[in-house]
Amino acid sequence: MGKRFMPETSQDNGPHVPVLLDEVLAALSPLEGKRIVDGTFGAGGYSRALLEAGALVVAIDRDPSVKPFADALMAEFEGRLIFVPGTFSELDTLASEHGPIDGVVLDIGVSSMQLDQAERGFSFMREGPLDMRMSGQGESAADLVNTLDAEPLANLLYAFGEERKSRRIAQFIVAARETAPIQTTLELAKTVEKAIGRKPGDAHPATRTFQALRIAVNAEFEQLVEALFASERLLTEGGKLVVVTFHSLEDRIVKRFFDPDKGGPAQSRHLPQVQTEARRWVEVAKARKAGESELGRNSRARSAILRTATRSDAVQRPVSLDGLSVPQIRGAE
Prior knowledge:
The protein is an alpha/beta fold.
């Protein structure tokens, strides 16, 4: 079971603070004169630090609300920040004309900036429309909640949120919407709390439900896989990929991507050894987590996991989900 979830932030948390920043910079160093793709620009925390370290940054984000942050950094670091609207799943195409690229950094998941914008509908702590679309386009969370039958809705909550009580939650949602559509974040949060209750000291009962819906609305697992393979296509030998994830489902995908053999069956020493493919990623570092000092400054770092690796000279792979343990919507418990 996954245990790491994106924590909600409070109104007084201030601007978004990039997690594991020192570790990210160390993994990409030396940065002077290097070209780095920040595939998840957000409020520009990583990009600013990379620019201050002497790098040229190609920043990518699909969220139109980040433009003021990008404009400010482009004005401050004239000629050294290139902002490209788009999804990080296409980062190789978006960044190729600005290469060669020496490194890619990805910060996966919703940012505290987005959580703090009630009108975006990401937070169960703030009243807002049940939206959750990072790009503002396509189906919203309200569309899923109000149109899916109980079984597929339960399956979604179980697969993407690892919600063990998914069937009961789905039943309560379907019953609630018979009176009126569920249109706001707090309406959904209250419905989930009514379904499964709330124990003092535990995480909010709607945490996993909101996570699952956000992942589904934004196709986050598919985007992550595409971004990893896009990085493999973009980077040449010696290029570095740095990925920060916020729960175990994403972290497992990144871990298996860097080291596919980790997901395969163990080979018996009594049988002929199967020839493994050439490794596309070398110098695969152990997972890193935030230290006590950072945790004291930034609660968002509590669930963050950093993984890094260096591109080898092996030919790139075709995009495939095989061996990556990408969650699939199946039967709920």
